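To: structure desk
From: M.T.
Subject: fold request, one chain
Message: Could you run this one when you get a chance? Sequence is below, nothing fancy, just the single chain.
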Amino acid sequence: MSGQLSAFAPFGGIVFSSAPSEASQIYDAQQTALGPAFQGEVDSAETYADAMCFGVAKRQLIAAGQQDDPDNATYLLDPLEKDYRIFPLSTASEHDRRATLKAAILARNGSYASVVTAGLTNILGSLFIHWRPMNYGASEVTSNTTYPAFSPPPTVPFKLIKTLDRIFPGLRMVGYVRVQDDGNPILIGEKIMIDAGANGIEEAVTVIGTYAYGGLFWLFAMFVNTHEPNVYGCTSPFVRWNCNQRHSMVVVDTSVLSNPFLLNQVHEFMRKTMPVVSTWIVCNETSAGYVGPFNVGQGLIGQTPINNVALPH
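Reply: Done. Structure tokens follow.
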């Protein structure tokens, strides 16, 4: 058994395959399209050059599309890890980094609706009625914004920085890069929000000292929390956004609501299958095919929706 090297797969780009390369397919398609006009070495050379260029472009498009797949990500692996706040060890292989990234993406997405329904049916049997997420089409998804009490006032000059060092609790000297400002670096007395919007991590610190040398900048402040490198800090107010788009209802028979054993099983299952930002309630039908509305003396606080919600048939 022997193979033959193809002129469409030059050294540095060889793949052992019985299938023709992208460039070879393009060359054959161009030759067919030209028909009688395709003749001689000049036409062949020009068509070959075009096919090689188009083949490279097609391979680049294929590679770019693969960057969304954690199993194939290469040059976007590092930015994707930052998006999911993954900080791999220096000894981690590319295979290990991809596996960690894939786990983070799957954890964010949660389970398929069919898996949630099947699991609740397995726990409750005929006592399970329906799993009902929020319906975008029915305008059930709402959101609101609030400014935390420690958010800086809107009157201060806007400055955005990115830290260079891992920050530990205590008085720290932190190097930073100026991302956007009014022409001045961070000044003594300014309040900076570090990791704004990251619940449990964000904090407001007051700058008690600064230092600059050779185009590099540092600030001194007292920190309470730990922060990873390359996080952002700002002097401007920020908004905390709340939304019910990750909320859902587990509709069950009325008897389940007074059965702590079954309720515990349902909540434990939902905790394991839903994304970490999800919320849910376990409630019963108030009438055939509907949940709610909440009526004083009849509805259950934290279980019965305020409005009347229809269940799919």
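Reply (cont.): Residues 77-109 form one domain. Let me know if you need anything else for the meeting.
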